[in-house]
Write a sequence for this structure.
């Protein structure tokens, strides 16, 4: 997760960057979902059944802190389909774990919105384009209107809500319109995710955009982040799954704020790029623990081995390699001067294309010149 707005503000105003001690876990409590999204890494659908019991969840929550986890993103499937979701979140709070909710918003209603706001520190709702594109991408007519209604309802009740958008060939025509939407709604955050080849995202590898298109979009995102800062806008811009965005931002600082570029570079080195298997992990409905939600391999199963033993293990070769800073990545990453910032990008994308976890990220859009300090 690359927090552009926070980095711009903290660098230009000589403030500390927003940081979170410990690891963030994306926990898929269910594989049930009322939608059938083209890019879903879980391949979730309505016919699935919950296999993870509340007792198993509570037992594992008690081991998260011992594993260094201070933050959990509730995901799925659709997490609000679980009738015990609030009890799970309350157990998190009792263990001093911060919680975010990632939802399609279609189950946010007048009767439960206050409880959702009181329970979760932040609510992220997925929007994949203008109405027609969103409904087609999500596999249900009327989904867009229901998700937008949920955003407005949360805002009306004083909640903290943002929009999550994934860039693909199918959604790219709505890219610029997403900024119009967040400005119109004045949401707290726009999280723009680059496609990772996993789940249905791997099945639909052909839906990814070109590197040239990605550069154009990233350049626009950075321009918008500066615009929001200069206009004192509260909209927070964040990108995901494309750590090369950090190099683009640094190059922009070198041109526009050369006296601040060294400060930003220190912040980016401390951030250290892709953190899968280190500050980021994934837990699914079957007990599997992975370095990130898209990763092709598990590092353990928390229903068989206590989570903290899995996550703090010094004997797991895969976790040890992922936690090297910077990682030893092949291809053009091996000669890139910014490997200490990007950390090689997505290992899941590399594996999906080459079958080699340690090859370069095939979606890297940096030129040879940009790879040199």
């Amino acid at each position: 997760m690359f927090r552009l707005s926070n980095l711009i503000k903290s660098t230009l105003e000589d403030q500390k960057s927003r940081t979170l001690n410990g690891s963030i876990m994306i926990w898929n409590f269910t594989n049930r979902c009322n939608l059938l999204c083209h890019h879903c890494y879980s391949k979730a659908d309505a016919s699935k059944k919950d296999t993870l019991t509340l007792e198993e969840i509570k037992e594992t929550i008690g081991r998260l802190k011992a594993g260094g986890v201070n933050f959990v993103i509730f995901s799925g499937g659709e997490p609000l389909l679980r009738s015990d979701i609030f009890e799970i979140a309350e157990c998190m709070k009792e263990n001093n774990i911060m919680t975010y909710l990632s939802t399609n918003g279609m189950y946010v209603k007048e009767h439960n919105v206050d409880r959702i706001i009181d329970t979760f520190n932040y609510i992220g709702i997925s929007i994949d384009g203008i109405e027609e594109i969103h409904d087609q991408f999500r596999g249900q007519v009327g989904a867009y209107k229901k998700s937008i209604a949920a955003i407005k309802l949360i805002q009306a009740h004083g909640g903290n809500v943002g929009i999550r958008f994934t860039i693909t060939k199918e959604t790219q025509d709505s890219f610029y319109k997403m900024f119009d939407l967040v400005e119109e709604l004045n949401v707290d955050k726009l999280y723009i995710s680059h496609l990772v080849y996993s789940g249905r995202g791997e099945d639909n590898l052909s839906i990814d955009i070109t590197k040239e298109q990605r550069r154009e979009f990233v350049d626009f995102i950075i321009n918008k982040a500066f615009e929001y800062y200069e206009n004192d806008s509260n909209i927070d811009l964040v990108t995901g799954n494309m750590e090369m965005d950090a190099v683009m931002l640094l190059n922009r600082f070198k041109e526009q704020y050369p006296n601040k570029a060294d400060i930003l570079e220190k912040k980016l080195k401390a951030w250290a790029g892709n953190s899968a298997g280190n500050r980021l992990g994934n837990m699914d409905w079957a007990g599997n623990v992975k370095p990130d939600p898209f990763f092709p391999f598990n590092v353990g199963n928390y229903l068989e081995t206590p989570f903290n033993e899995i996550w703090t293990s010094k004997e797991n070769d895969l976790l040890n390699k992922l936690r090297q800073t910077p990682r030893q990545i092949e291809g053009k990453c091996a000669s890139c001067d910014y490997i200490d910032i990007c950390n090689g990008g997505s290992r899941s994308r590399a594996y999906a294309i080459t079958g080699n976890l340690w090859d370069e990220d095939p979606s890297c859009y940096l030129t040879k010149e940009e790879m040199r300090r």
Q: What stands out?
A: Confidence is low (pLDDT under 50) at residues 35-47.
